[in-house]
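Q: Structure for this?
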Amino acid sequence: MKNNIRVERAIKNITQADLADQVGVSRQTINTIESNKYVPSTVLALKIARIFGKPVEEVFILEEED
Amino acid sequence: MIFAYFPVMIAKKIFYHGYMDHGGHITLPDNPSLLDANHIFNVIATLVVMVGLLLVGFSKEKFEDEQIIQLRLDSLQWTMYFTFFLYMLAVIFTNSIDLVHIVGINLWMLLVFFIIRFRWVIFRLNQSLKAEKGIS
């Protein structure tokens, strides 16, 4: 699974720490999601998408091998 | 019948200090009573160590989120593998007398391995964040 969190963050001009605060997780979690080391739960994915005001599919994208 | 067995066993454990024969000799049972000075020390020491390890291993992190929960479960799984591996080695390379000690060690070895593994993963997580900061 890929994600656009880094891009979306740049558009909204917020840091990893800001995003982490808004969805209620640690900065490490946002960081590992961005670098594709951790797959978030559905709840967390929905929360992140809501912060960016976009549907989940636009923030998290399935890849061929998934 | 079996329900009567446990209370009797526990009562015996607490109050039975051995018995006196006709010559006034006191025979100590193989199974020491709970209130025996040496034995109660061992019991308390073991309990303190175990409760301490439980608190260290399973108290909540300062920031407990879903990733931490997953890492904790992951560490528990590795602990299971590790223990089984250790136990297999013990079965192969020890005799049945040593096996009693192996079981004793297993009491705290499980949690010690779990704590080390869990702390190590969290340490790596924090390191990765620092490395990221260094780049950007």
